[in-house]
Amino acid sequence: MALLPEDFPVEERSLPNGLQIRLLTDRSLPVCTLYSFFRVGSRNERPGITGISHLFEHMMFNGSRKYGPKEFDRRLESAGGTSNAYTSNDLTAYYEDFASEALPLVLDLESDRMASLTIDDVSLAREREVVKEERRFRTDNDIDGMMDEAMGALAFLAHPYRWPVIGWMSDIEAITRQDCERYFRTWYAPNNCTAVLVGDFEPEAAFAQMERLYGPIPAGEALPSVPTGEPPQKGERRAEIRYPSQAPAVLVGFRGPGGSDPDSLVLDLIETALSSGEGARLKRALVYEQELCVDAHVYFSWRMDPGLFEISLKLNPGVDPARAESSLFAELSRLCDEELPERELQRAKNMVRAQLLRGLSTTNGRAHTVGQMEVMLGTWRAMLDLPDRYAAITAADVRRVAQKTFPAHRRNVVTLIPGEVEA
């Protein structure tokens, strides 16, 4: 059953400078969430400044004309609110959860840093070191991080998805203040932002405040295009990593469609059928029955351009990676050769629907979903018929998309072998 528009009375507003505003009132509790989505991520970078989108996420908390360094969080937390942010391949998002009476303060904080962020050598040097340490912790010395980084470089030859969101260490070290200033003027202009406010507020009063605070910020110039000319894959690709781990691991990736392609919904169900819950196919076959793995996890997320469908296998000590691969490919072949039984298909639909509805159960979840749909699919209304679109997927659709996605020549395989090599 589709979500009803009357249950999500989103008001769509915009300012002359291009800022898109989406307002959704919810009077059940005196709380609000504000999200600011900027359409910029690692996809919009270039060699030499990879990682600048994530670095800039850190820079955005270092003060502006009205509020000095670290004042953003101090003021917000003094009012009982919390904030966070994240950077992905395709976008950067900032959000605040707060009591309704703090709305004027939150709007003032957010508009001030959009209008006049402080970018200086001191803050850049400080945040650069924080990001370098984050990269050491999450990538250079983390099995999942180093395998994911290798997968991107293996699966993509031309597209910006080939480098990691956190960037290459040499680029992080080389980014200059001038690079940051140019980046801020280009990507953090109001015409590249969608602001989503959900919670207990008066829409007209909130819009008037946003108009007053954001309205004077000038629009930016036309945004640079993204080079998306990734050539078709014509054969299996492999990479090997040697690292002192307790057991081998395998990461397999297949290039898939972009988020706006209807086949992405089918891959959501395939992801769920393969690895969500203890009864999922890979958990049953590889973890419990054959005892090859301690974990088998599938990860697929919508991206603006064709992305990756990834399968991660954490093997038991002593298991031959080739044996685990063979069992995995046998399970994928089953999806290609046989229709998914109705019971498994319905289970996957129920789990995906439940996840969608859980995401709409809080002000933060509704604000995030509305913003994600706006940025990824062009309109928040795309979420309304998602339950019906998932429900309409058939076993034949699953088989068709599996056959399209999982041929042997489309495989990208990263294998972790316990051990060390000389630097």
Main attributes?
about 425 residues; alpha+beta; Cytochrome Bc1 Complex, Chain A, domain 1; about 20% strand
Produce a short descriptive summary.
By secondary structure, the protein is of the alpha+beta class.
Which helices and strands appear, and what pairs or packs with what?
Blueprint: E1 11-14, E2 20-25, E3 31-38, H1 52-59, H2 71-78, E4 82-87, E5 92-99, H3 103-116, H4 121-140, H5 143-155, H6 169-174, H7 177-187, E6 193-199, H8 203-214, E7 237-243, E8 249-255, H9 263-275, H10 281-289, E9 293-300, E10 308-315, H11 321-337, H12 342-359, H13 363-377, H14 386-391, H15 395-405, E11 411-418
Helix pairs in contact: 1-4, 3-8, 9-12, 9-15, 10-11, 11-15
Describe this structure in words.
The chain has 423 residues and is α+β, with helices and mostly antiparallel strands. It contains 15 helices and 11 strands. It has helices spanning 52-59, 71-78, 103-116, 121-140, 143-155, 169-174, 177-187, 203-214, 263-275, 281-289, 321-337, 342-359, 363-377, 386-391, 395-405, and strands spanning 11-14, 20-25, 31-38, 82-87, 92-99, 193-199, 237-243, 249-255, 293-300, 308-315, 411-418. The mean pLDDT is 94. A 6-stranded mixed beta sheet has the order 1-2-6-3-5-4, with helices on both faces. The chain has a 5-stranded mixed beta sheet with strand order 7-11-8-10-9, with helices on both faces. It starts with 10 loop residues before the first strand and ends in a 5-residue tail after the last strand.
